């Protein structure tokens, strides 16, 4: 299995802009209302490309460029306008860097004919942080085609994406990997309608992120899996991972929702379907049991066989409505100051 990223409609959305959004930021409790709420709250950019520049990348040579690297390199340093890099179908095996001097970039693929970014870097060669296909220093993303770690090979893991800049959104993305699939490194992030799979710590880092209406899939085969490892190191940090109206899929009671990697790790699952892949204990402190006193692992109105709280560890928190409110709102990521919707090219 390869570590790959499949580009769908408005796949990678890298921005550093400010937008005032009218409407209520509380995410509706009724999942059937999500789309209408999102369109009212955030909206969509017009189908017309007049409001942004489009660069076409086609592996067959029919576009402006044949590689994503060349398209990114054509964007001038200090870019201040929205640029959409439209990527045609096919496999793009290349290591890509988007520097801090190039904000306002969107990488977009056709959802009906999706391109794939792939690279064969591993942690042994590049380290986990740099083991990737796409590096965007303003808003970072990576993808890899590394073998599945077997627990014996040193440095076999690889991140499919590292997003380390502030204010980035991912719409209709697929992230394929095993260990360390999504390195949610730093900054405020929004993931909507995505698919993320993995085995160990496959969503990790110190980002401040909302994952909404996304499938989190635990790949079978490992005796124990950990979905998240959040790296909040003090009670003054505002970071954390929030999963709202998601589904955790898989089977076998092998997966923990998260583990206490850092002393103040903070992860919340709300209004989410938890399949029986979730271990009845829910969360793990095997990294350091002393973190039980300071970590924040919360659950709110989840459903499914994995949501039963009877055998949960003592440091898990079943949140009340008031306790959950700060996390099930776009205010958690200060969305009104930066979140923009994807453009429509297809």
Automatic annotation (TrEMBL):
Catalytic activity: [(1->4)-alpha-D-galacturonosyl methyl ester](n) + n H2O = [(1->4)-alpha-D-galacturonosyl](n) + n methanol + n H(+)
Entry keyword Repressor: no
Enzyme Commission number(s): 3.1.1.11
Domain of life per record: Eukaryota
Gene Ontology biological process terms from the UniProt entry: cell wall modification; pectin catabolic process
Residue ranges of every copy of the Pectinesterase catalytic domain listed in the record: 56-335
PANTHER family: ACYL-COA THIOESTER HYDROLASE YBHC-RELATED, PECTINESTERASE 63-RELATED
Protein name according to UniProt: Pectinesterase
């Amino acid at each position: 299995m390869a570590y790959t990223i499949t580009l769908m409609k408005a796949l990678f959305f890298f921005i550093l802009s400010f937008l005032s959004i009218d409407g209520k930021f509380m995410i509706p409790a009724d999942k059937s209302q999500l789309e209408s709420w999102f369109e009212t709250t955030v909206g969509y950019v017009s189908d017309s490309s007049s409001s942004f520049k489009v660069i076409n990348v086609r592996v067959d040579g029919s576009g402006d460029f044949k590689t994503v690297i060349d398209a990114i390199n054509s964007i001038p340093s200090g870019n201040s306008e929205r640029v959409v890099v439209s990527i045609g179908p096919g496999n793009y095996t290349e290591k890509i860097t988007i520097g801090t001097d190039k904000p306002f970039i969107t990488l977009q693929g056709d959802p009906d004919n999706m391109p794939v970014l792939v690279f064969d870097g591993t942690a042994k060669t590049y380290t986990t942080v740099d083991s990737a296909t796409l590096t965007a220093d303003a808003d970072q993303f990576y993808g890899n085609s590394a073998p599945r770690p077997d627990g014996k090979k040193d440095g076999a893991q690889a991140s499919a994406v590292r997003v380390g800049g502030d204010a980035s959104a991912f719409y209709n993305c697929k992230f394929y990997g095993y260990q360390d699939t999504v390195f949610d490194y730093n900054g405020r992030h929004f993931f909507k309608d995505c698919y993320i799979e993995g085995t160990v710590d496959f969503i990790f880092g110190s980002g401040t992120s909302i994952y909404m209406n996304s499938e989190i899939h635990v790949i079978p085969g490992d005796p124990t899996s950990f979905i998240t490892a959040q790296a909040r190191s003090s009670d003054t940090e505002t970071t954390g991972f929030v999963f709202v109206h998601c589904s955790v899929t898989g089977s076998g009671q092998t997966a923990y929702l998260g583990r206490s990697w850092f002393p103040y790790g903070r992860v919340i699952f709300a209004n989410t379907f938890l399949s029986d892949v979730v271990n009845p204990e829910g969360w793990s402190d095997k990294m350091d049991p002393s973190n039980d006193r300071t970590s924040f692992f919360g659950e709110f109105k989840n459903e499914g066989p994995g949501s039963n709280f009877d055998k949960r560890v003592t440091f898990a928190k079943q949140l009340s409505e008031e306790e959950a409110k700060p996390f099930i709102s776009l205010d958690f990521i200060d969305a009104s100051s930066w979140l923009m919707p994807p453009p429509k090219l297809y």
